[in-house]
């Protein structure tokens, strides 16, 4: 199974297997982004993507609307890749992406080390 | 050190790009939307941009925005009618816009035209119709020479100092379709200006040719590396190069080739010319251009005319300015009733011949298809049929004889597209927004119409302030050019009473002119329904606190951000905003049933929604 992950259109959205998976403009609750116990983070753009096991991750750029801190996040989980037997119109199996509820990364996300890379990558991260 | 990897976009471009995309596009169109392999969507949608097609946002799959590039904003006689017909027949989606109806055309800040809801299956017919009438979508988007902009009355202006239109047209003809320049690291935006007012907006382009004089010869000084996007605004920087009009092609092509060879293809965030100029400095760009890309000795810069620039200069119609309308007031004729053409071309102004041009305000650049057709007819009846587009999203009807002016100005269509709009209407610019765009964070066009309507009815500008620009951009891509407005609005989110709502950052004091400056962002995340109140209070505070004769821009320049922030007092007013909810999470913000799952997309070639298979 391969699942190309790309950030496209000036960081506007995450493509998983050539489908739009997550877009900018949402509010995410994050831990570890700023001094707030839980940041209320406006996603203004994506700067990279990767996978950790089956977990799809992104790096986002945005602002905490509580404390005004702005900048890039660490790697954040946004969904999981799940195998499927669903027939597709093209040859080859591809992963199905299950988005986390409301796109919100799980509590505690964002606390990974800033230099830590996802364990594996399928496709390449992409900036437009 | 990591390996340098080409981006996916560069890989796709290296496989198929430029002219050759068309054959594939036509094949997909012939066989229908479903024929694009699922695992090639990203690649093909990226490539389609080169032919002016931009896949609309999530919830609107299978529909495309189509951009038509009109060099220097010139629509030749008959072409607006074609645009109106195409919009009327093909740019109809599954839902109507409550302000603009079911079919419309958008005039953009780069003097282009955008249509929405275009179906892939209709592209061959649309291309046939456009191209048989001299219009094209080629290179309207994508990584190459974009639509060339300039003074919208080039060739008509009574006071033009360099004949810029033939230069812009030659660059367009030379570099549209030129394989050596069809695959650049990123977009390449060019401005050619020949007037004294500076209305080509060269400062915010990758390449700017601006009028200059050298030893009694008129030509252009060359600037490079301007642009607004991604929170990294840059003013174009002087290259210390003067070119005569017949050298413009060689130097422009040399700079495009320099960008092709040295621009960053490994990181698209860093790919624009502005970053190369940051890295090298203008002098190194000049030296490299001289050594590697032109075969004649570059001349040092001539004397520019920037101290005469009045367009968006923040000074109002200053005495002695070289107004496009220069002479109008003196003759006491109808043009004297329309001051201010030096900053936006709205109103009635004399051309270099005995005719007049009439600039009409188009709110946020959007005109209904039926209105496009009617305006085309009026342009034909009263003028030469030519219509031009401005970088303020407005239209100009050229070549109107004085004897026809009164009758033209009495036409009912001009009640909606006024030659004498309120300052808030003529000062409004808005990008596409969440209606169609993936990047935007908020709804823009309908909101800006409502802002202008409310401000017109409730707020007066302080004495002596005759122009006031409010630009609303949905995100940091800055398509509405917010950084060069008096009031800059940029899409954000916030919470109000615990609910996530659409909000706007507010910047102040941006503009062009001799000393261009970008807006200072002084207020963050003002709930959108409190923005008109904030502008009302800001203007009242400005009127009270300004020094004698201080323009709004001077007022901002003379105060620190903290002081300015205190002058913005957001509050709810009688203004109501129907788009406070998260419009990005709808399939279409104005649909009655607007949930993402309620939309019909993607739509198959036989008009039935494609069955979802997962």
Mean of all residue-level pLDDT scores of chain A: 73
User: Strand content of the residues of chain B, in percent?
Assistant: 15-25%
Helix/strand-derived category of chain A reads mainly beta
Largest interface: A-B, 40 and 42 residues
| Terminal-residue CA separation of chain B | 41 Å
* Total domain count of chain B: 4
Number of DSSP E strands of chain B: 21
Shape of chain B: globular
N- to C-terminal separation of chain A? 25 Å
CATH superfamily of the largest domain in chain B: Sulfite Reductase Hemoprotein, domain 1
Q: How many strands in all of chain A? A: 9
CATH architecture of the largest domain in chain B: 2-Layer Sandwich
**Sheet of most strands of chain B:** 6 strands, mixed
Instruction: Give the radius of gyration of chain B.
Output: 23 Å
Percent of residues in β-strands of chain A: 35-45%
Secondary structure: helix percent of chain B: 25-40%
Determine the number of helices of chain B (DSSP H or I, runs of at least 4 residues).
Answer: 19
Quaternary structure classification: heterodimer
Q: Indicate the overall shape of chain A.
A: globular
Outline the secondary-structure elements:
The complex is a heterodimer of chains A (128) and B (614).
Chain A: E1 5-8, E2 13-16, E3 19-23, E4 27-30, E5 39-52, E6 55-64, E7 70-72, E8 76-82, E9 96-99
Antiparallel strand pairs in A: 1-2, 2-3, 4-5, 5-6, 6-7, 6-8, 8-9
Chain B: H1 8-15, H2 21-31, H3 41-48, E1 53-55, E2 63-69, E3 74-75, H4 79-90, E4 104-107, E5 112-119, H5 123-131, E6 149-150, H6 164-175, E7 190-192, E8 207-214, E9 217-224, E10 237-243, H7 248-262, H8 273-280, H9 282-293, E11 303-304, H10 328-331, H11 341-344, E12 347-350, E13 356-360, E14 366-368, H12 369-382, E15 387-389, E16 395-400, H13 402-409, H14 413-416, H15 423-426, E17 428-430, H16 445-458, E18 470-473, E19 487-496, E20 499-508, E21 520-527, H17 531-545, H18 552-557, H19 561-567
Parallel strand pairs in B: 6-7, 7-8, 17-18, 18-19
Antiparallel strand pairs in B: 1-2, 2-5, 3-15, 4-5, 4-14, 8-9, 8-11, 9-10, 12-13, 13-16, 15-16, 19-20, 20-21
Helix pairs in contact in B: 1-3, 4-12, 6-7, 7-9, 16-17
């Amino acid at each position: 199974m391969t699942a190309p992950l790309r950030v496209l259109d000036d960081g506007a959205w995450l493509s998983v297997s050539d489908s739009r998976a997550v877009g900018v403009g949402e509010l995410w609750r994050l831990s570890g982004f700023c001094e707030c116990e839980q940041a209320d983070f406006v996603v203004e753009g994506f700067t990279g993507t990767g996978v950790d096991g089956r977990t799809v991750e992104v790096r986002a750029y945005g602002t905490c609307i509580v404390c005004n801190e702005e900048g890039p996040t660490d790697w954040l989980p946004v969904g999981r890749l799940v195998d499927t037997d669903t027939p597709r119109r093209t040859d080859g199996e591809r992963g199905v992406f299950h988005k986390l509820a409301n796109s919100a990364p799980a509590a505690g996300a964002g606390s990974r080390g800033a230099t830590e890379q996802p364990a594996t990558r399928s496709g390449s991260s992409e900036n437009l | 050190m990591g390996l340098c990897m080409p981006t996916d976009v560069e890989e796709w471009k290296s496989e198929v790009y430029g002219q050759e995309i068309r054959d594939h596009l036509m094949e997909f169109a012939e066989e229908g939307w479903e024929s694009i392999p699922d695992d090639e969507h990203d690649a093909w949608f990226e490539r389609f941009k080169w032919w002016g097609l931009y896949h609309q946002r999530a919830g609107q799959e299978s529909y495309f925005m189509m951009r038509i590039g009109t060099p220097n904003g010139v629509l030749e006689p008959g072409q607006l009618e074609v645009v109106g017909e195409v919009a009327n027949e093909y740019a109809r989606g599954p839902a109507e816009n409550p302000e603009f109806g079911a079919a419309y055309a958008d005039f953009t800040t780069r003097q282009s035209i955008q249509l929405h809801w275009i179906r892939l299956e209709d592209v061959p017919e649309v291309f046939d119709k456009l191209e048989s009438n001299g219009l094209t979508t080629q290179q309207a988007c994508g990584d190459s020479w974009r639509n060339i902009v300039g003074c919208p009355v080039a060739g008509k202006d009574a006071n033009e100092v360099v004949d810029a239109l033939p230069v812009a047209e030659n660059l367009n003809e030379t570099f549209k379709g030129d394989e050596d320049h069809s695959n650049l690291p990123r977009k390449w935006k060019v401005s050619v200006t020949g007037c004294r007012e500076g209305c080509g907006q060269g400062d915010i382009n990758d390449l700017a040719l601006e009028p200059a004089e050298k030893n009694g010869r008129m030509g252009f000084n060359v600037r490079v590396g301007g642009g607004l996007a991604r929170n990294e605004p840059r003013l174009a920087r002087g290259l210390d190069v003067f070119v005569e009009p017949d050298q413009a092609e060689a130097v422009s092509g040399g700079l495009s080739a320099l960008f092709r060879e040295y621009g960053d293809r490994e990181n698209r965030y860093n790919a624009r010319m502005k970053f190369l100029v940051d890295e090298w400095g203008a002098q190194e760009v000049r030296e490299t251009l001289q050594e590697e890309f032109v075969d004649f000795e570059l001349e040092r810069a001539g004397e520019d005319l920037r101290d005469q620039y009045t367009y968006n200069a923040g000074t109002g119609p200053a005495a002695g300015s070289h107004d496009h309308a220069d002479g109008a007031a003196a003759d006491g004729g109808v043009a004297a009733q329309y001051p201010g053409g030096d900053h936006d071309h709205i109103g009635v102004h004399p051309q270099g011949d005995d005719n007049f041009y009439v600039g009409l305000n188009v709110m946020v650049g959007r005109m209904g298809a039926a209105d496009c057709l009617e305006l085309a007819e009026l342009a034909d009846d009263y003028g030469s049929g030519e219509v031009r587009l401005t970088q303020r999203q407005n239209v100009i009807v050229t070549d109107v004889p004085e004897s026809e002016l009164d009758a033209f100005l009495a036409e009912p269509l001009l009640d909606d597209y006024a030659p004498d709009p309120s300052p808030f209407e003529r000062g409004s610019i808005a990008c596409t927004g969440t209606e169609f765009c993936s990047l935007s964070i908020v709804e823009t066009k309908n909101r800006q119409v409502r802002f202008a309507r409310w401000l017109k009815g409730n707020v007066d500008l302080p004495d002596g302030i005759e122009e006031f620009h409010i630009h609303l951009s949905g995100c940091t891509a800055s398509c509405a050019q917010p950084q060069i407005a008096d009031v800059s609005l940029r899409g954000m989110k916030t919470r109000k009473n615990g609910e996530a709502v659409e909000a706007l950052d507010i910047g102040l004091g941006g503009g062009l002119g001799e000393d261009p400056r970008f807006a200072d962002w002084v207020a963050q995340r003002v709930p959108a329904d409190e923005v008109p109140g904030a502008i009302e209070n800001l203007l009242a505070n400005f009127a009270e606190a300004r020094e004698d004769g201080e323009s709004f821009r001077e007022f901002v320049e003379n105060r620190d951000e903290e002081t300015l922030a205190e002058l913005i007092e957001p509050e709810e007013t009688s203004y109501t905003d129907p788009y406070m909810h998260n419009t990005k999470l709808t399939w279409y913000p104005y649909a009655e049933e607007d949930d993402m799952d309620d939309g019909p997309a993607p739509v198959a070639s036989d008009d039935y929604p494609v069955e979802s298979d997962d």
